[in-house]
Amino acid sequence: MNEPARLRPPLARVAGVDAGMLFLAKFLRPKPVIWALIILPGLWPIWPLYIRQDPSALADGLKFILLHLGFVASVLLVAVLTFTPLRGLFPKSPVALALNRHRRLVGVSAFGYAAIHFSVHVLYEGGWEFIDTTLQTAVNKPFQLTGLIALSILLVLAATSLNSAIRWLGGKLWKNVHRLAYVAVALVAYHQISAKKVFPMEVVWIFGPLAVLEFARFWKQRAKTRAVAR
To answer: Is residue 48 part of a domain?
Structure first.
C-alpha cells in the first residue's frame, strides 16, 4: 500500500537535495579544486597586510602570519579526521565518498602548513641561527612542546603516507601508526588553548565538529553491535 501523500516528502525537494549533493560531490572530486581550497586560505594574510591594510594585523605582521598558519594547519588536520566518521555515518553519501578520495592530500597539507608555521615561529624568535635556543625554550613551555610533538607526529604520518610505506609496514601496523593522528589533534587542541591566557572559542569551532562526529560514529557502531548481539 502506498503511504499517504501528506507523509511523502515533495519529489522536487528530494530531487533538489540529491542534485545538490551530487553537484557538490562532483565539484569536490577533482584534485585542482582541493588544491585551491588548501592553498587559498594560506594566502589570506596578503589581504590585511598589503591590500586592505588592517592596523591590528600590521602591528605585528609576522605574528599575524604565524597565528594564521597555525590556524589553517589545525583546520586541515581536523578536516581530514572528519572524513572517516562522515563515511561511516553516511556510507552512501557521494560527498563523503568524494572527500575520502583526498585524505592523503589534505593530511600531508596539514603537515605542510604546520611545518611552515614552525619555520615562521623560528624566524619570529630570531632566525635559524638561534634554532638551538628556540628549541630549548620550547621544551620549557608546555604549549610549544605540545606543538613540537604534534609536528613530529605529522612528519611521521606524512612520511608514511605513500603506498610503498603501506607495503613496507604492513596494513595493520600502518593503521596503528596513523591512529597517532588523534594524539596529534589532541596535542594541537591543547597547543591552541594554552597559547592564550583566555580560552579561545575558535578551539570549540575547530575541534567541536570532530568530537561530535566521532561520538556519533561510536554511538552508531555501538547500536549496530547491540542489534547483532540480540
So the answer is: yes
pLDDT tens profile 71-114: 999 999 999 999 999 999 998 899 999 999 999 999 999 999 99
Task: List Cβ neighbours of 182 (8 Å cut-off, separation of 6 or more).
Answer: 81
Non-local CB neighbours of 118 within 8 Å, separated by 6+ positions: 147, 148, 151
- Amino acid identity at 182: Y
What distance in Å separates the CA atoms of residue 162 and residue 158, rounded to the nearest whole number?
8
Calpha distance 35→111 (Å, rounded): 14
Q: For 75-96, b where at least 16 C-beta lie within 10 A, e where not — what string?
A: bbbbbbbbbbbbbbeeeeebbb
Across 137-147, average pLDDT: 87
- Please give the Cα distance from 130 to 177 (Å, whole number): 32
- Structural domain of residue 214, as residue ranges? 14-229
Q: Is 9 within the bounds of a domain?
A: no
Total tally of structural domains belonging to the chain: 1
Q: CA–CA separation, 190 vs 143, rounded Å?
A: 7
Q: Which three cell numbers stand for residue 159?
A: 612520511
pTM to 2 decimals?
Answer: 0.86
Q: Using the predicted structure, report yes or no on whether residue 229 has a pLDDT greater than 70.
A: no
Is the Cβ–Cβ distance between 14 and 8 less than 8 Å? no
